[in-house]
Amino acid sequence: MALDRQQIPVLDVHATPLRVPELVEELGRFIEEGSTRTVLGHNLHSVTLALSDDGFRRLYEDSDVVLLDGAPVLWLWGRTGNASGSVMDYRLGSTDWLPALGQVRGLERIAVVGAGAEANAGAVSRLQAIVPGARVAGFPGEGWNPELEDAAVAWLHREQPQLVLIGLGMPLQEDVLQRRLADLPSAVYCAVGGAIEQLAGIQKLAPRWLGRMGLEWAWRLLLHPRRVAYRVFGEPWVLLWLLAARRFPRGGR
Length: 253
Hints:
It is built from twelve helices and eight strands. By secondary structure, it is an alpha/beta fold.
């Protein structure tokens, strides 16, 4: 059963506002239960996809945890007045909570799926330092295709991890979870986007003070202008159109 969801004003989506200690507690509980669970994160990109793709939206609605990831989503939720303490404490991008995995009780087997071979190996090494008692294994995801996806599923069945970090980028990682979750071994599946490269030190993290100001997008735009420009300058207009279309449907009153 999913944790209590809270409505994000304006955006017509729900999330599970948690801070790092609370997420650590939930991950420990999920691992102890041994069932299949999913942990996702909501930012403006995922909100746009959820409003435009029914399968993507269902995945989020069925997920056990949907973290607040992205300053605009966080700030809009903050308007509800449900935060205990600083609103910024509830912003949990993957790199905010991955360093706390060593505190998750019962965590002994971790799988890292995604990124190139170098980044994947680097993230595996970093996680072994974060969770010294765990066995950490990696499966690179560069050039993802149906054959590689089948091989990853078979590999996960052999490894039998308790926690799977799947970092194939959005929306590919969510598409994979939609298609294959029923075929995968029981584990906690966490969509972590580019966090594999960030853990490996290949992709530079924005300074945390910049993230707390809601300006992490500027850092990403500076480093990866071609990859990020549309999401920064174009996608917000798509989101506004989708929200308006839902609020004022054609033929509606």
